[in-house]
Amino acid sequence: MEPFASKEKSMNQKILTSFCCFMALCLLAACTEEKPLALEESAPPTPAPEVAPDAQIVIDLGAGEGSKEITLKSDEKFVVRIEGNPTTGYSWVHPATRDFRVAIPDGAEQFVPAEETADGRVGAPGHFEFPFKTVGPGSKKLIFRYERPWEKDVEPARVAELTVTVEEASP
Predict the structure, then answer these.
(1) Domains of the chain: total
(2) How many CA atoms, within 13 angstroms, populate the side-chain half-sphere of residue 121?
């Protein structure tokens, strides 16, 4: 029985040695900085288009903590921009309201990657854009919440507010 035990021990050593060599090769391959070969030459990525190309006013709320105020005239388009990163699970949300007296949404909101990360890297930060249009005189508070849509009964991570005042047209 002793020859069988020594063969088993020798086989275990060979398996362990093979496994260690395989792991060492995997680590070396992971550490290389060589780019993989591309099958086709691809064009550089194009930056994302603006939400509303004719919008002249961009209101940047930064990271979205705090509030701002702005005064506009009736029938002006503006875009609210807030920094964020949807790969964290969080998104900026502007809850729909039935108050259409001062400012109304003027298109769909979207996420735009930051210019320095427009190369398409996953996980890159950027900003969310919300297009609006003023419709009449008055004042309205727009509230934006940074939250995870699947979390119920949880306070948002951040809240941003923009008070829009629309001046009455002068005769």
Answers:
(1) 2
(2) 11
> What whole-number distance in Å separates Cα of residue 113 and Cα of residue 170?
40
Q: Flag whether the pTM goes above 0.85.
A: no
Backbone angles phi, psi at 168, to 5 degrees: -70, 140
Looking at the fold, whether 24 and 62 belong to one and the same domain comes out as no
Q: Is 29 exposed, middle or buried (0-12, 13-18, 19+ CB in 10 A)?
A: exposed
128-158 per-position pLDDT tens digit: 999 999 999 999 999 999 999 999 999 999 9
Please count the residues of the chain: 171
- Residue 17's identity, in one-letter code, is T
In the predicted structure, residue 43 carries a pLDDT above the cut 80: no
> Cβ atoms within 10 A of the Cβ of 162, count?
22
